[in-house]
Batch of 4 targets.
Target 1
Amino acid sequence: MYAVFSFFLSIHMLFVTLAGQLLPAKGVPAGEKAELPLYGGCDPWVIMYDGAFYDCRSAGNGVIVRKSDTLAGLSSAEGRVVYRAPAGTAYSANYWAPELHYLDGAWYIYVAADDGENANHRMYVLRGDDPLGAFEMVGKITDGTDRWAIDGTVLTWKGEMYFVWSGWEGDEDGEQNLYIAHMDTPVSIDSPRVKISTPTYKWEKRGMGVNEGPAALEKDGALYIVYSASGSWTDDYCLGMLRFAGGNVLNAKSWAKCPVAVFTGRETAWAPGHCSFVRVEDVDYIVYHSNVDKGTGWNARSVRAQPIRWVGKTPVFGKPLPAGSEIELP
């Protein structure tokens, strides 16, 4: 207990000390200059595979994938519709936050979808042989409760796969928690869900108590889950962080929450959230959405990227760069 307390006391002081600073990482790979925001959109998911960058985005009732030789180039890359849902199914509408993963020799997209009613949102899996080719619907991925679920991601740790997502405890809206379960294959869960985070602090409850958009971040044996907190429609949307303290990944007590938000808004970069991470030459970049103007909610989100810094085994994000900033990206 003392070790956990000491860790978060030190990380709290680090965030307080560096809160007003921008934190360029050391040794950033040479690249091209880009102006922020990079492009319009939300819930960015970017990966690097075989020297190319891919991003994945929703398209109403389907999914679009883009490919570029550079991270900045995704803004002008051609989008390919890799899946379009048929009408009249439980997964025909409201595709949210798709993620593209390469697992066990095949490509998978995890995406939330419903039949037109938000209460029926569940996580689904698509499978394909080519990230820019056609994907097929495999089906729903869920634990035994089969409750409301969005923002699913895959965490790979010590050779095992785990599914992490945002969901409701029961059958009614009002609070979103983070859950984790073990995966026996890329398309199925074989354990009960475990709640590893629930909105606790004031910065997680503005607008509504929300923990969503989990993204795994790992370096040198240290494992974190970075997530979005508070209502995504508010200016107070921000990022929080869980630290894996060791032991069983499926034990809620193995996860410790940082008591302060780790990435918060500023002028021309309000409501930063729903991030992904991409590593290039040992430098980690955070890709996220935010708003240029206050009070614009879901209507004007745009995507940005910037390097993060590691202090020992602790990631430090600094502040989101303001709109109009020029940054070198790989």
Target 2
Amino acid sequence: MKKIMFVNFPASGHVNPQLNMCRELAKKDIKLLYYTFDQYFPRFKGIHNIELRKYPDDFNAYYHQLAEDKRLHEFIAFIYVFYTLTERVLPFMKEEVEKEKPDLILCDSLAIWGKIAARIYGVPMAYFFSSLMGDSVVIKKSPSFALGLIKSALLHFPYVLKFNQIKKRIERQYGKVTDKPQEIMSHQGKFTIVMTSREFHPGGEEYGEHVKFIGPSYREDSAIPEHKDKIFISLGTIAFSDTFWDACIEATKGLGYEVVISFGGAKNNKISRDSIPENVKVYDNLSLGEYREVLKHSALFISHGGFNSISDAILYKTPLLICPITAEQVSNGKLVEQYGCGAVYIEKRVNINKLRNKVMKVLYHEEMKSGLEKYRQSFLHAMGYEKAVEALNDEFGLFSTKTNEQP
């Protein structure tokens, strides 16, 4: 029986897209090890034939310390985060690979430590992208992405020095086994799984067949309600604000919609609960089913621009107003705007009148319906997880196709 190590970058937006991949792999005659934080273990309930392994507690604590630092929300600072996390957890990952001797390492694109361990021990590997790639093709097709990189490098140059120092320390100890900064978000010629459609990915037609565009993590080809009576507002599971929610309530006032706000479980959010209008419902969190039901019936989704949120909105033909927090989300928002699936609002401080103008633009922009339908269809017709696992097996010979299903 072949053994696969699936090395996760331990963030909610990376775990969720990998659940169905694990579910499909677990049906096969293989041994599957999945590495993440133990706080995510409950999400794997119902997936059998999988062994969940937790990252060390000190690594978990260090990760969350970095996540709370708002200075690290820029492109270049993110790269520093990837390298410093790698330096912290690499000894553990190296020991795991040496002990388990896997036949394949399926590596989250941002989990550099998994790539390094595979190179040190000569283990075959494949890459998994939970969002868009960020290679030369994307830079060429998305000028705003390239401009963001340059701007971030100039404004946050000390982080360039820091991550280069970390990279040199790792290479002094283990050799030339570390991704260069420009390689982290690249397929590097490896078998690669990308969680979107070829049509939605910038320059998708330029990638070879080794890059498998399998569509978003969740696909539901159900009827879309003709009448949508809600406006949904959420900034994902990490972001928080003490002013944004009240501004959104004011900007959507009097439009005739029920406004649903979800904090996504994030703490430290502040809202003037004493003066919340009757048409506004506020939730600390929604279950996945509740979230999808609200989104399906929403005429507008005001979002931070996380990639999973964007994909879900397009699936339900719900136009987006992206209010980004990180540089990556700014790039995502501009792509959504370019594709005619919504608009982006980029302001350090929310101006209620400007925000309302954006809300009105998206709500009453009929042409967005065609953009949403175009990319929805591309999602529904992408190859999906089952075929992705078949392609993985064709490439690496992991299981027999005659007796490959686990009971």
Target 3
Amino acid sequence: MRPEALNWSIDNCTIGRAMQILGERWTVVVLREVFAGVRRFDDMRERTGIPRQVLTNRLASLVAHGILRREPYREPGARVRYEYRLTEKGFDLYPVLVAVRDWGDRYLADPGGPPLRTVHSGCEAQVHAVLRCEAGHDVATMRQVEPRPGPGAIRLNLDRRPGESSGISTESGRRLRADAGNTAQA
């Protein structure tokens, strides 16, 4: 039986787009540091061992994508430098980092336990990522979730005639063709 997902294009997949920004190890390490309150370049470099140019590139990318913003500061007698602060878009990544940490704590922690706990400041209970539907129901397992095409989904045109080039067809019937890896409207 053919999975329904194969009928839909992944060209506009938001998971893929997010991973183009976040999918490199050092990017997530930089975010971890900023969420932990480490906001200055030299402090990040010293704490993590990230090579200078790699850190420069990751910070520039996070700023360019609107996840971090540069905030000037000056130590007495020194030149103006910048620290990196989360934007609203950056703060929205916190549940992602908590979910990654939860997974790492479960499968990758040393025998002595995880090196970091995050606790609710009001009650000191540990914080975890939780999946919940818009109606307020907790989702305990992936088996309780069904993928469905969203409003931006593009249905693949799988009903082409022999000799016709492959392409993508949206629900409104527009025809798109893939030419050399680029999608263009025909």
Target 4
Amino acid sequence: MPERSEWQKIKTEYISNANISTRQLVAKYGISYSALCQRCAKEKWVEARKRKQSILDAKVIERAAEREADRAAATYDAADLALETVTALLQKDVDTGDTISVSDLKTITGALKDIKYVLGIRNETEKAIQEERLEALRREKKREEQQDDKTVTLIFKGMTDEEAQIAGESWSG
């Protein structure tokens, strides 16, 4: 039987390494599978591993969101600069009294459409479609969360309360 410090090392490895199995730990540390499973259940290693993974997942999502926000900000800055440039060119032509050629007007219009696209400016129909998609995703996430929260209760017929409790405890771990 491993010493307390050895058990702590095994537990830490199990919780922090999502790719290692209990069988691999048994082989690595030369301990019995049943002893490992009992310790794992008693100290709730699986729950601790899930909590650790959830924390890691949240950090990954947060970092990805930060990178995406940085990219979006850079895109907005570039689109804003392009818009200022187009506006300045138009204002120059107006101030000098120059006429704008049809080809220049088409180029400017195209540039404005591109800026609109880059900035994500949408018409009402596009906005409505996006809102519907978001709402569908929210409903799907809610359904998944509700499925995760289901608890199963076993009813043991023909047993005394004490027998059912013992059977339930042996079933859970």
